[in-house]
Amino acid sequence: MTQAPQELLDLDRLKATPVADVPFPFLIVPNFIRTAAKPRIAADFPEVTKAGSFPLPSLDYGPAFDALIDSLTSPEMTRIVEEKFGIDLAGRPTMATVRGRCEARDGHIHTDSKTKLITLLLYMNDHADADIGRLRILRSSTDLNDMAAEVPADEGTLLLFLNGPNAWHGFEPFSGPRRVIQVNWVTDESVVRREQARHRLSAFFKRLVSKSARHAAAY
């Protein structure tokens, strides 16, 4: 049975959280996932053992996680995001990806592509995994320590920001578990198709390389 977004998410907490304007519009909401829902969502989270972000069609996950994605991409959630950031998202599709692990090559300072209008990150880590490699909201493209905020990666922490040419963010490189869901409101449906195709191609070559390595190790 479909669940209303407010059953899983604390939408009132989101509505009450002000948007910071400097260095670019963003907000952070701890405990955005309701406490009672966290164990079910964590149990149904897709098993992602490799570094990188993976589109939902390439993953297996349970009904509680599926309900969470439905809530994050719901019309009600979209309306709140529109009001918070003063942006019209009518006709703008959403695209969701999942990360389960980081490697040392990750974390470099960057902005998101121009096709991404709004970025949502929802962290799903227990406390032991949440203290290192926290995402930083940055004032420039050159200094990882010149930060306006650091985002806790604890289970249920939400980050939302308006993408733009100065929306710099990054984190100190580390290798280890990092469960995070990313949802983007994007310019048009072609972005979703292109990104899904790119991820499928990348996954194919990763499997091919892994298979070749196993075959070589057998001789």
Give short descriptive properties of this protein.
alpha+beta; globular; 7 helices; three-stranded antiparallel sheet; 219 residues; six-stranded antiparallel sheet; Jelly Rolls
Written account of the structure:
- Helix 3 packs across helix 4 (63-72).
- This protein has 7 helices and 9 strands; from the N terminus they run H-H-E-H-E-H-H-E-E-H-E-E-E-E-E-H.
- Helix content is 32%, strand content 23%.
- The model has no long low-confidence stretch (mean pLDDT 89).
- The radius of gyration is 17 Å and the shape is globular.
- The chain has 219 residues and is of the alpha+beta class.
- It has a single domain, classed as q2cbj1_9rhob like domain (Jelly Rolls), CATH 2.60.120.620.
- The strands form 2 sheets. The chain has a 6-stranded antiparallel beta sheet. The protein has a 3-stranded antiparallel beta sheet with strand order 6-5-8, with no helix packed on it.
- Strand 5 and strand 6 form a beta hairpin.
Number of helices: 7
Report mean pLDDT, rounded to a whole number.
Answer: 89
Q: Largest beta sheet, briefly?
A: 6 strands, antiparallel
What is the rounded Rg?
17 Å
The first-to-last residue Cα distance is: 52 Å
Portion in beta strands: 15-25%
Reading off the top of the CATH hierarchy, the class is best stated as Mainly Beta
Helix content: 25-40%
Number of strands: 9
Spans of at least 5 consecutive residues with low confidence? none
**Number of domains in the coordinates?**
1
CATH superfamily: q2cbj1_9rhob like domain
> How would the global form be characterised?
globular
> Which series of helices and strands comes N to C?
HHEHEHHEEHEEEEEH
- What is the CATH architecture assignment? Sandwich
